[in-house]
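Notebook entry, structure prediction.
Reason for the run: the old model in the group folder had no record of what sequence produced it. Starting over properly, with the input documented here first.
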Amino acid sequence: MSSAQGPVAFAESRAGPARDSVTRIVSGAAIFEGCRPGDVIAAMQLFHPPVVLRRRDIVFTEGDPGDAIYLVVAGRIRLSRRTAGGRDCLTAVLGPSDVFGELAVFDPSPRTVTATATSNTILLAMDRVAMHTWMRERSELAELLLTALARRLQRTEENVAYLCSASIAVRLAVQLLTLADRFGAPKGRTIHVGHGLTQDDIGQLVGSSRETVGKILTDFRRRGWITVTGKHITITNAEDLGRMAGSPPWPPAARTVTV
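New structure, fully documented this time:
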């Protein structure tokens, strides 16, 4: 396993999650949507043994060869790419059942992003050759993978259009609710989310600056929608925040959400 200075060498983990739990998480991945349970179990035989990463371990770096596909079993992965000015820009935060690096299945071109663990994380990896073998043996599954990739491309295009049209306040409201929905752990009538993001990170996700994000968070606090304590944000009025986001009230059963 590596530090933040180099790529991770995948090896067998002695502390991985229970197999049933892994099977459930793998089944929830977009690339296996529509697959029969037997097909998912067969695909799991092609993954390398689970690997445990520490915070800041690097899975691959922008420019590395694209030779494998990865699935998050536990923890979080951040995807970032370097701008023309040499600054790292956060493009996505991934959690359990999320897949990344899947373009390597069809195109061995260099990676376009850097993938880094932001917490203790467990991944599964399937190399390109094994993935091709699996798809040849089950041609209908190749269609499922292509469908999943097409859906991701569609979401990317929709997100670009959204970033061009929505105000920063709306984008921020959506991002807070999305993070809460994606990483929330319900506790009574609250949902606690540990995403490990700074205001600068959130600004990158919504296409704005840290300063602007800070001002809008202050406005949300004045409206009574959130409270801010250190690096934690507590959503105290999810319904109004949801209306700002242009979506139905979220979450319907919770009153506070800690981000």
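Summary: The helical segments are 19-27, 37-44, 128-137, 139-165, 168-183, 199-206, 210-222, 238-245.
The old model has been moved to the deprecated folder.
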